Amino acid sequence: MQVLQRSLPSTRAGARPVRPARKMVTCLAASRPIPRATNEQKIDLLKKVECFIFDCDGVIWLGDKVIEGVPETLDMLRAMGKKVFFVTNNSTKSRAGYMSKFQSLGLDVKAEEIYSSSYAAAAYLESINFQKKVYVIGETGILEELDLKGIRHLGGPSDADKRVTLKSGEFMEHDHGVGAVVVGFDRYINYYKIQYATLCIRENPGCLFIATNRDAVTHLTDAQEWAGNGSMVGAIVGSTKREPTVVGKPSDFMLKNISATLGLRPDQICMVGDRLDTDIMFGKNGGLTTSLVLSGVTTEEVLNSPDNKVIPDYVLSKLPDLLTVKESAMVAA
């Protein structure tokens, strides 16, 4: 039973309306602000879900700081026999790189529980039996995952310092053996990379255009939001007039892989995230239960905006809210 639908929110006893930080905003899908999950609803969530898929930035950590209570929450879920996966659109690290980050934050996570968009890009190319070279706009995470799949590549960090002078008669050569351009978050993107990717896509017959994600903003630090990969992808869309194949959230490529691996139905899986347009949409598109946490990008004002049409099944202030029903949930399990 889903406690929040696209029509009216639950009005059962004990459901409390959300208190927006500034003013009450009426949501298009509800006659009043969407309530946070009650203890009864949290227990219902824990009882019916067999696998939790977590976004990382804004859910597990903010920048380089783990959100207080997250380690205990993960321990509780595992003690209840729940499967957990960590799905992130951040492509700057490979799964091995994310393993190091989890460990540095004191989180016990296995490599096979991590699905990054860098891994998704490599896995997608493997799934179509890709045999050519890849030009990469992105950082080491993508390169490391391509190496693990035996896929040849060029670009990435090695092109960080290359410059275009645009002197009279200047002509840029490019590798005609490139059969795909992968665009991931790149702190060192420059005009050389944009032009090289543009030439490959426009002039190499059949060249694929793959985006790890199109997130507008990202949490690179815990101090503020930073421009996301959508800005990098947008530059290539603008110069090529081509739309990319997106392999990260909210596309369903990673979800199908997880579901197939575990043999679970979509309704047995819950997507937990802090973004409506990627995390929650990702879950909705795949038929999953969805839970929005308000510890990251999405605020109560955005959630309850008349313009928002993406309604999560559950709303938590932060993931460790589930600890408030630990004793009751463990008994029920």
UniProtKB/TrEMBL annotation:
<dbReference type="Pfam" id="PF13242">
    <property type="entry name" value="Hydrolase_like"/>
</dbReference>
<dbReference type="InterPro" id="IPR036412">
    <property type="entry name" value="HAD-like_sf"/>
</dbReference>
<feature type="active site" description="Proton donor">
    <location>
        <position position="57"/>
    </location>
</feature>
<feature type="binding site">
    <location>
        <position position="274"/>
    </location>
    <ligand>
        <name>Mg(2+)</name>
    </ligand>
</feature>
<dbReference type="GO" id="GO:0008967">
    <property type="term" value="F:phosphoglycolate phosphatase activity"/>
</dbReference>
<dbReference type="InterPro" id="IPR006349">
    <property type="entry name" value="PGP_euk"/>
</dbReference>
<dbReference type="Pfam" id="PF13344">
    <property type="entry name" value="Hydrolase_6"/>
</dbReference>
<dbReference type="InterPro" id="IPR006357">
    <property type="entry name" value="HAD-SF_hydro_IIA"/>
</dbReference>
<feature type="active site" description="Nucleophile">
    <location>
        <position position="55"/>
    </location>
</feature>
<feature type="binding site">
    <location>
        <position position="249"/>
    </location>
    <ligand>
        <name>substrate</name>
    </ligand>
</feature>
<feature type="binding site">
    <location>
        <position position="55"/>
    </location>
    <ligand>
        <name>Mg(2+)</name>
    </ligand>
</feature>
<keyword id="KW-0378">Hydrolase</keyword>
<keyword id="KW-0479">Metal-binding</keyword>
<protein>
    <recommendedName>
        <fullName>phosphoglycolate phosphatase</fullName>
        <ecNumber>3.1.3.18</ecNumber>
    </recommendedName>
</protein>
<feature type="binding site">
    <location>
        <position position="57"/>
    </location>
    <ligand>
        <name>Mg(2+)</name>
    </ligand>
</feature>
<dbReference type="GO" id="GO:0046872">
    <property type="term" value="F:metal ion binding"/>
</dbReference>
<keyword id="KW-0460">Magnesium</keyword>
<comment type="similarity">
    <text>Belongs to the HAD-like hydrolase superfamily. CbbY/CbbZ/Gph/YieH family.</text>
</comment>
<dbReference type="GO" id="GO:0005737">
    <property type="term" value="C:cytoplasm"/>
</dbReference>
<dbReference type="InterPro" id="IPR023214">
    <property type="entry name" value="HAD_sf"/>
</dbReference>
